[in-house]
Design goal:
One of its GO terms (molecular function) is metallocarboxypeptidase activity. By secondary structure, the chain is α/β, with parallel strands linked by helices. The chain has helices at 10-23, 66-81, 86-94, 105-111, 167-178, 210-228, 237-240, 248-255, 280-301, and strands spanning 28-35, 41-47, 52-58, 95-100, 183-191, 195-198, 233-236, 259-265. Bound molecules: N~2~-sulfamoyl-L-arginine and zinc ion. N~2~-sulfamoyl-L-arginine binds at residues 61, 64, 137, 190, 197, 201, 237, 241, 244, 247, 249-250, 262, 264.
């Protein structure tokens, strides 16, 4: 298997980020946007400079290993197929692509330690000192702490003591606030269940551009079915998955990023979070097709 068909330790991912930036000085820049609770750097890779931009983050939830694997896959594919694949070329010619390979490095690192493979949250220690970890996808400032989240630091869906209390969420939010005039597409990568989710999750109200969003994910799902014979479901978060406050997708949408998506990659529960390395290429190629499909559609609309 190639480098991209294996799961990597956090150290290997940091090395890969440095090497990728060094080997591609004209096309790739590593930008430090903040640090995690345990003071690990949060690097965003910028792939080519433009007026429009898209953002992809991976690894918000520690145990969803296919997610960081996809970010590495995506950057590698973009660099390898620029001027070969027409969609990649078109995207890179007209958009900056910001990629955060591991939004939750402390949690990810923790899942590589013995018996901690199922950890989801970050590793911040609560005020009481009793429990560890905030669910970063409940920590954003949108209807914070209301639905599908818990103020109890011992729970899996703990939203933290206040919105953006966590350095990881704060770093992403600050970066997107600074770049909201150019970033038109926000994608956050999770697993599992094979789903394309768009706003809203915090309310059953329809997003103002609901039909555009629906059309985009529908097209992505159709192409995946056609090319890879695999099924993805899709729809607005609250109705399709569950009502839920404080998610990054809704927050980015309300910031003004009109095309905002959560991808839930393979599989549909057979292996769940323990998706075997032999499935990485399949899972990533499907997600890649979806990213390309949606990005090209965003370019047509903006
Ligand atoms: O609950 C989540 O954070 C995501 N599912 S997961 O199984 N990967 O944890 C779904 C997020 C959908 N979007 C929002 N809830 N805003
Ligand atoms: Zn997740």
């Amino acid at each position: 298997s190639t480098f991209y068909e294996r799961y990597h330790t956090l150290e290997e991912i940091y090395d890969w980020i440095n090497r990728t930036a060094q080997d591609n000085p004209r096309t790739v820049k590593a930008i430090l946007i903040g640090s995690s609770y345990e003071k690990r750097p949060l690097y965003v890779l910028k792939v080519k400079p433009n007026r429009k931009a898209m953002w992809i983050d991976c690894g918000i939830h520690a145990r969803e290993w296919i997610s960081p694997a996809f970010c590495l896959w995506f950057v590698h594919h973009s660099l390898s197929f620029y001027q070969q694949n027409s969609e990649i070329t078109r995207i890179l010619d007209s958009m900056d692509v910001y990629v955060l390979p591991v939004m939750n490095p402390d949690g990810y690192k923790y899942t590589w330690t013995i018996k901690r493979r199922w950890w989801r949250k970050n590793r911040s220690i609560s005020k009481s000192g009793f429990c560890v970890g905030v669910d970063l996808n409940r920590n954003f400032d949108v209807d914070w702490g209301i639905k599908g989240s818990s103020q109890n630091p011992c729970e899996e869906i703990n939203c933290g003591p206040f919105p953006e209390s966590e350095p990881e969420a704060q770093a992403v939010a600050n970066f997107l606030r600074r770049h909201k005039d150019t970033v038109q597409l926000y994608i956050t990568i999770h697993s599992y269940s094979q789903m394309f989710i768009f706003p809203y999750s915090y309310t059953f109200d329809q997003a103002e551009n609901h039909n555009d969003l629906l059309e985009m994910v529908q097209e992505a799902a159709q192409r995946i079915k056609r090319y890879y014979r695999n099924t993805y479901t899709y729809g607005p978060g609250a109705a399709t998955l569950y009502p839920c406050s404080g998610g990054s997708d809704d927050w980015a949408y309300k910031l003004g990023i009109k095309y905002s998506f959560t991808f839930e990659l393979q599989d549909r529960g057979e292996y769940g979070f323990l998706l075997p390395p032999s499935h990485i290429s399949g899972a990533c190629n499907e997600a890649l097709l979806a990213v390309k499909t949606i990005a090209v559609k965003v370019l047509e609309k903006t």
